[in-house]
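EI: anyone free to look at a 847-residue chain?
SC: sure, send it
EI:
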Amino acid sequence: MSNFARAPLAAVLGPTNTGKTHLAVERMMGHASGMIGFPLRLLAREVYDRVVAAKGADSVALITGEEKIVPDKARWFLCTAESIPRERDTAFVAIDEAQLGADPERGHVFTDRLLHMRGREETMILGSDSLRPMLAALVPDADIISRPRFSTLSYAGPKKLSRLPPRSAIVAFSAEEVYAVAEMLRRLRGGAAVVMGALSPRTRNAQVAMFQAGEVDYLVATDAIGMGLNMDVHHVAFASLRKFDGRRRRRLHIHEMAQIAGRAGRHQRDGTFGTLGLEGADHAQFTDEEIERIEAHEFPALRQLYWRDGDPRFDTLDTLIADLEAGPEDDVLRAAPETVDLAVLKKLAAEPWVRDRTGDPAMVERLWAACGLPDFRKTGADGHARLVGRLFRHLSEGEGHIPSSVFAQEVSALENLSGDVETLAGRLAAIRIWAYVAHRADWLADPEKGASRAAAIEQRLSDALHDSLTQRFVDRRTTILMRDIGAKGEDALPVRVDAEGVVTVDDERIGTITGFRFTVDPGTNHADTKRLLAAAERRLGGEWAERTAALTADDDMAFALVTEPDAPVRLAWHDAIVARLAPGKTLLTPEIALDKSLAALTADQKVRIIERLRAWLDAAIGRALGPLRKIDAVLGAEKTDPAIRALLAPLVEAGGILPRKTALGPLGALDKQQRHRIGRLGLTIGALDIFHAKLLKPEAVRWRLALASVANGKRMPELPPAGATLLPEPKGKTLAAWRKAGFRGFAGQMLRIDMAERVARAAHDARNGKAPFAPDPALATSLGLSDAALARLMQALGFQQAAPATEDAPAQWVWRGRRAPKPKRRKPAPGNAFAKLAELDLGKGGG
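SC: here you go
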């Protein structure tokens, strides 16, 4: 764009919250075309969204270093100051925060735009009143307009973090400080949103949206918020009054303090500012003079602006460097300090290979464009020069493009959404570099594809960083409690339970209800757990009533017996534990004890639940243990013969399986008719055991062992594998349980008792009186019995080995008959009189 002035030229000056930017945007939209240069990519994006809403996306362009949206019919352009298309001619031009011409790092850019950017019909320069003498010297034809602040800004003194008022912004001057303050706020007040210039617009907007929506009452930011970002801030607290400006750590200038403090208050609502006591008193206290000037918006006038030649010559590298290092001719301008782009250029100019490739002006200009790549990673001139040099090698050879494979590899390596806040922020800074590369028109063979790829990764990283920031620095439960308890008390918390049992307080998930058990979500701190638990449980009376009604009306399929090894035997409703079984009068009539999770229920609700569980339990026992219940009924019938009762009583007590040797007396007392009646019950009086075959089915076994455990006051044992007939012999409690389940042990193996009876029947079918015989080996093989186990089984059945097995023939056995077990002879205790008598040899001598 040409440098001649075009009227009218207005300079709108004043402190923050004077509506300068709003005025410029409204004026721009009143023209057929326009352009505004902003100090921040975030601010450019914010205004872009606003203008798009008014004019439509097809008419509005956004141009920043890492983002370029330029529709074919674009008429209004929102840009960062560095990215303003200087060649474009528009009716309106505005430069925002023009006092940044005094900034050592970026000042020369704003000075150049102030001097040379003009609109055909109107130009506006926006900035602090401290810019007034510079405008008078550099653009004397400007019509200077002063705008007062809409609201009052007053000093509120120092405050502790725990006493900060809601809607406060805390300003720090490093990422480390920001994170430290945000972490303290999470613990004390539920958390904070985080805003830093290094964040992408998407991350920043998501964080600000949390603050604006009231999801958090605090915002922690760098001084980026001083540059026109509009937020609903009532109070600004300075965590520090010192910052590192790229060269040294210094105290903030008064106009910097005012720019940041001025974010407090919005439109006509007054705001306050103060400090936090996070560092030494000298660093975190305003002087009386500073307070007076900030409140009165009186700041020292700028005496110089930084300048650098905005149109250097590209004849040779040395000419370019000389022009960039040249001083200004005007006394109110000052040569800009060496910035990163110039430092990188000088380092690369010292490389022989760079000199070889920059023999013509076009390549010199291309190198300077590469040096303009922003150092988003903050690696410093040396580190950044290595990256720029690597890119310039590609830009200065072949077709002059960075190979698509190199670009793809670099951006793909950044497409990793795992890691902490610092890791994600580092990747986001790196992808911003490659987004900048993709937006250079001639750096990639397919810049549109590259820009789309980089933007997609930046978007995903932005979302991941927002999630990570929120997870790390926001405890919404605490935020809700601090806000609602203070306003209405815990009883007023809106507690809701959805169909999945998720409990929310003010739409924030705090826990779940499973059955009648309310569990606070893991990760909640101890103090909040108690508050939330108490608040929620007092509000769940209606839920408990609904669940009681649902349980009592539910069908039997909703209930289950829970038999976990080494745990109490319990009852579940829809997989939620609601009761446990306790010893009752008999094995088949256990008591029901409600789970402690039902303690909050009324007495009537508890009775109704127990009655429903009892009805289900009785029916379930009948289904699983029908034969045993039938036997128990015969045992209790008045007409049952005493001889039959003598056999059935221990059988029922043992759960339907009784070793034969323990019932020889009752068995011997039965007559033929009584045996027939027992047979009608389905009982098998086997060689080794008395049992009912249906009680060996897996579900019957589970119920028998469960009820036996309850009756004996023990925990549930491990069940044998369902359907197994032969198992390795276990040890300890499991061995005893499997015996109750219906297994017998033989030489390290356990055989189900009905299978042992099959072997017994086969052996008796094969024998001929007391003549030696060999049992059919196929049966033992099909069962998986070892030779040793088969031998022990045959002996237990009343057979005696007549001949051992050989290579040519199996073992021979003879029937010796079952014999009543001999009573064990007790050895008298030492010192007992009978023991002394036993020591005497009465068969020798004497008498």
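EI: Confidence is low (pLDDT under 50) at residues 1-5, 485-491, 832-847.
SC: 👍
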